[in-house]
Amino acid sequence: MLAGVGCKWVLLGHADRRHVLGETDELIAAKVAKCLEVGLHVNLTVGDTAEAREAGKADESLVGQLSAAAAGISKDSWGKLCVAYEPVWAVGDGAQPCSPEEAQRVLAMLRCWVADNVGKAAAQAVRMAYTGSVNEANAASYAALADNNGFVVGRAGLDAGKLLNICSALAEGKVTASDKLLGS
């Protein structure tokens, strides 16, 4: 139905769907496969909770979510996928945002997992995004991350002016990051 009404992208795996509605990795993987099958692009959100992080199992949790979905993704479909890292522990009123250094570490780890388990072409084709209380004040620091291709914006996106500033920070950060890679 979504493809039929002109949708191009679908968001799957968001923490609210996983933790409030009980969507499992298996259900999300089935949704990912079906969406790709009908021509939709997928924003697959993977996230670690405070409990997983405190138990030293954050990376294991993230890789488990990604690997479950990867089982239904063909090697040539990774360009239709965006993996969004959502540190669940860093989202919401009063939460301490994830540091840019930690966000980069996680995004790089996820991209390496794709390279090692699917292939280098898939790792280059997949987009990686950060979603964890992105706002005007911190967008530039996340935008400059080497493995971050964008954002999934929550509440800050409800204000058009704030959203425009976040988008501008992303555009400026990617130019800066590209310049750094080129040695300019």
Automatic annotation (TrEMBL):
Organism domain of life: Eukaryota
Reactions this protein catalyses: D-glyceraldehyde 3-phosphate = dihydroxyacetone phosphate
Enzyme Commission number(s): 5.3.1.1
Entries under Pfam families matching the protein: TIM (PF00121)
Keyword Phosphoprotein tagged: no
Coiled coil: none
The protein's annotated pathway: Carbohydrate degradation; glycolysis; D-glyceraldehyde 3-phosphate from glycerone phosphate: step 1/1; Carbohydrate biosynthesis; gluconeogenesis
UniProt xrefs under CDD domains: TIM
Keywords: Gluconeogenesis, Glycolysis, Isomerase
SUPFAM superfamilies in UniProt: Triosephosphate isomerase (TIM) (SSF51351)
Leading EC class: isomerase
Family named by the database record: Belongs to the triosephosphate isomerase family.
Subunit architecture: Homodimer.
Full protein name: Triosephosphate isomerase
Protein species of origin: Prorocentrum cordatum
